[in-house]
Amino acid sequence: MPYVFDFDHSHRRPPMEMKDLLGGKGANLAEMTSVLRLPVPPGFTISTDACRAHMEGGWPEGLDAEVARARGRLERAMGKAIGESPAALLAGSGQIDRFFSLKDAAPADGLEWLDATPRTQGGTFEWVRLGFQGNTLKAMELKDNFGQKTILKFGGLDENPRLKPELFEFTPPKGVDVMREQ
Length: 182
Fold this sequence. Notes:
Layout: E1 4-6, H1 19-35, E2 44-46, H2 48-57, H3 63-78, H4 86-91, H5 96-99, E3 100-108, E4 111-118, E5 125-133, E6 136-144, E7 149-153
Antiparallel strand pairs: 1-2, 3-4, 4-5, 5-6, 6-7
């Protein structure tokens, strides 16, 4: 049983009739892509069957492989690796130089700067600059292909803090029914 469906997957029924499999958002994205032919970025949905299987017996066998194949299709459809996004710089994948050309930039504002330019053309960003104080990332500047510049400043970061389990408790608001499939 497949658990992963590309947005443009050819289903036997209209996607809006398959919310039970694709979920509401997944069905809407599939409808926009495959039926209405709207310019939706490529992507994929992990089915509600996968969620149910996980709830009943743990992580479904084969799901990792399906997601890896879907990600490969997505990367090819985008014409570039997901690793070229600025988020990859923050994730610290260890492969930054595979997706970006890196060069030291002049110090400014008390920070040491690193310029990162995507290795392929046609992505969403022209360049990204990372500002460090020692080994700590303090700022990130991004220039997108529309000429817009975004500046992010990082402060008060606590790397891998120990969090109390009670922080993850959920109490439904009054008047909300919580349904659980058994």
